[in-house]
Every structure is written in structure tokens, then in C-alpha cells.
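[step 3/7] fold_predict: job queued, chain A
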Amino acid sequence: MTAPLTRPQHAGRPLRAWQREALAAYREAAAVDFLVTATPGAGKTAFALSLAAELLETRVVDRVIVVCPTDHLRTQWAEAALAAGIGLDPTLPNNVGPVRPDLHGYVTTYAQVAARPAIHEARTRAKRTLVVLDEVHHAGDGLSWGEAVAHAFDGAKRRLCLTGTPFRTRPDERIPFVRYEPDGEGGLASTADYGYGYREALRDGVVRPVVFAAYTGVSRWRNSAGEVISASLTGESTKSVEATAWRTALDPGGEWVPHVIAAMDERITHLREAGMPDAAGLVLASDQDDARAYAAIVKRVTGSKPALILSDDPKASRKISEFASGTARFAVCVRMISEGVDVPRAACLAWMTSYRTPLFFAQAVGRVVRSRRPGESATVFLPAVRPLLALAAELESERNHVLPPPASVNEDELYDPLPPDEAGDEGEATGWQALGAEAEFAHVLHGGRAVVASLELTGEDEDYLGLPGLLSAEQTAALLARRDTEHRKRASSTRVDEVATDAEVEQAELDARSWRAAGDLRREINSLVGQLAARTGAPHGAVHARVRKEVPGPPSAAAAVEVLAARRDWLLEQTVR
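[step 4/7] structure written:
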């Protein structure tokens, strides 16, 4: 790492209004401890580094230590700090005592602090230190973690706590350096010195508005008694039946997953054609086996190989960075892309997991809401089950999330997956065997309001899906419903049943090749449109409209391979002139 400037300098884009207000509130408080709660995607890192630069410049502190949840975030923090003129070491281990003298400090993890708090205490007391506790609720992941953080950083000159999710804890699970007030239910609620919620960020254009596309469908499974049971995801059933239908829908062997992948792939295509050329989607899986299976489905349905990001992969951090800065359309992950991970080009999320806690939901959705320019929106594709629909409807509500018990008690409480072997009211979950699931578009949920398809769209409407502010939630719902039959065909064409005839196998392979060819042509067309737009100065949408005029036919998302090839050839002629 290059040696930092002696005096840190503010770099990059100007601070947002909320960041300036938070800095003013910090100066006025002049307190050792300061807690900032800001919605995911709002820019907590930029705020913290601006404050750190100010405290270093004014000689209030001489060292900065950042504590974050994961190793990947260590690198992300160090890179952001270097851009602001602050040198932080993201690799400093516990067995090395001093901090490099040419740097302002280092970045570590909560687990690393818990492993050897004494070394971090010594580094903190060696100089006047600002400690930044990123996503501070992680200090409550285990009783020993909280004790280690308290021990290591009690002697800090200043401490800045950051979180994207206000939280509640029990009295015996207090997180160090956080102020609390009684929550009226026997617990304690965190008290922020400055708060900036999703509703405020949405108003200011700091985050993207989120549209939730809910998909229902009928799931079929066999229970331990050998009985075949069918149930709709949105049916009037018991919670246990709904949970089993949900789990069956997520089974990679059914058609629910490829159907939704096809719908999200089309949404990404529309976004890329409408001025967001690097738009990408995240597929969130419950475990590594599902993630690998989903990655294979993405490849079959879209023709694009996704980035597969697994927690036990030593290359996971590098894969996240490459995906964030690259052009790949999809990433399939398990927990790795959660809070704090910055992938601004990700505008779609497929919720293909049984995780259902408000805390994890808010963190995961936060990965696709970061706004880069006015008018961008995010789409989350999810099963139309009551727990998730309730969380989606409450996204804009201010709430204090309940932290899970310490990790030593039950690590999965943060995620609360559906128990695979828990017998329900009729015992259908025990001995469960998935037999298949179909998907069907149900409705769009926007601003807490369910919107069904009740409008007719023209081809021009389809062309402009994704352009800032041009399509309402009602129009989006109409388009998703209109294309639903095609998505079902596309999903089924990628699967060949074991008892299919030779003719059916041949047709399925032809269909799959056709979809892959169409996908390749669309991507080539998008690239050529971008080149022509850059050369002529015309907006991407105007170039697409001209292509449609010169080579008539349906919108690119629905056009046949022959039409797409003709459009590609016309664009090639224009770009070589």
C-alpha cells in the first residue's frame, strides 16, 4: 500500500446533506461515544472517513482503528480510506505488535479482536485513537465478543459506532459504548446520536425505490406417510403447510426457481437497454448446495455463467470485488453479499432463501438500494409468502430490529431458516420430498401497496421499462404478468424430463440453444448501442428506438433470433461508418 499523505485530505464526491448534518451533530456533541444509524446504502463509510480525516487534521486523534464484520470489508474500508488520504492496513494480524509508522492505523474484524483483545488495547492506548465500530450490533454476536470490544477499546480517545439497522437487546446483552433506553417490553432499544432512515434517504434520492415482484405457484411434495400434498404459496393454509410449500418452491429440481431467474434476467436486460449498461442481479441462496444448483440454473436459463460466491471459498473476497467492478449479469451467493458489501451496480435481488428475520431482510435488500444517479430503481423477486410480504410492506417503517441471541447459543437466529425436519400441524414437513413447483406472477408490492396487473401495455411501454420514472408500479405489474407465460416456457425448456421422448429432448435442446443465442445477441446489441450512443451523443433509449424503427419487430426481450441478428447487423453498419 502506498504511504498516505501526512495530512489527510477529503477526496471524491461532496458530502450529502445528511452526512454534513451528522458531522455538525458530532462536533456539537463533543462526546467520546457517538452512534450513527443510517439506512444501508446511505454512505456511512464516507461519513466516517470524513470525520476521521477531520479529527486527524485537527490533531484530536493520531490513529484510526476500524472494526468490521468480515475480512472482505477490511479491504473495502482500506480502499475507501486510501481514496480519502487515510492509510489503513487491512492485513495487520494479531501476532504483530506495532502498527506500520507510515500508516494512520488499521482495519480489523470483531472475531480478530475477540481472539486477542490485549494487543488491540495496547495499540489503542499507544496513541490518541479513533475507533470506528462498523455495524456495531456485531459486538453482540457473542458475549465474549462484547467483552473483548469493551476491553480492547475502553481507552480510545474517541469511538464512532455505525449501524444500518437500529436494534434492541436484552439487559444482559448490552453492546459496549451504545446508549440504550427501555423499549417498554422488558428490553433495551439503542439510542442514536444521529439517525437517517430509509424513508428519508428515499426522499433525498440517496437510495433507490424498491419494487417487490412477488411470485406464487403450486408446490407438490410427498410427506412421511407417502401422501402427495399440493399447496399454493399464497393459499389459505397453516403456517407449516405454507413453510413446506415455500421450501418446495426453492428446490432446484422444480420450475419455480428457473421461472423467476428468467423473469429477473429479462428485468436486467431492460435495465441495461434503458441506460444502466452494467445492471446486475444477486441470487441469495440458503446453503452452498443450493447455491451451486442455482448457479447451474442461471447458466442454463440465461446463457451467462454467474459468479459463485461461497463463504468457505478462499477466493470469495476477490470474487466479490471482481463482480462489483465487472460486467457479469449474475452472482449467486450464500450470506457473503450481505451488510456493508458495496456492489452499486446490483439492481435486482432474487430471494431464493428461507431466511426470514427482519434484520437479515433489511441487510440483504440494502445491497440493491444504493443509488448512483437519479431515477434508478431496484427490483426484488421473492416468494409470495406471508412472512416475506409483511417484511416488504414494512421496508419504509422505522423499527428497532431484535438482535439474535449470542452465537454460542444459536448462530442461525439471525437468519431463522425454515426447519427442514420440523413436523407441522399435519406432519407434512417430516420426511419431506419435493416433487415439483410451478411459478406464477402474483403482484408487485411498492410502497407497502400490492399492485396487480390491470393495465394493457404497448410495445413502446416494454421498450422503456427501467427508464427513470417512465413506468409506474401498475405498468411494471402489467408487464411482468404479460411476460409470465414466456418465462414459464423459458424455464421448462431448460429441463429435460427423464421420460421424455427423443423428439422432446431434441426440441428442448433446440429451445435452450435458441434462448442462449438470443441472450448473446441482446448483449451484443446493448454493447453496440452503447458505442453508437457514445459516438453520437444520443441517449441509449433514443438509439434503441431508432433500431426498432429501422428493423421492425417486437421489443428485444421478446424478439426472435432472426430479428435480433438483423438489428445487430444494422448496428454494426452504423458503428463502422
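[step 5/7] annotate
The chain has three domains: 17-202, 208-492, 517-575.
The chain is about 40% helix and 20% strand.
exit 0
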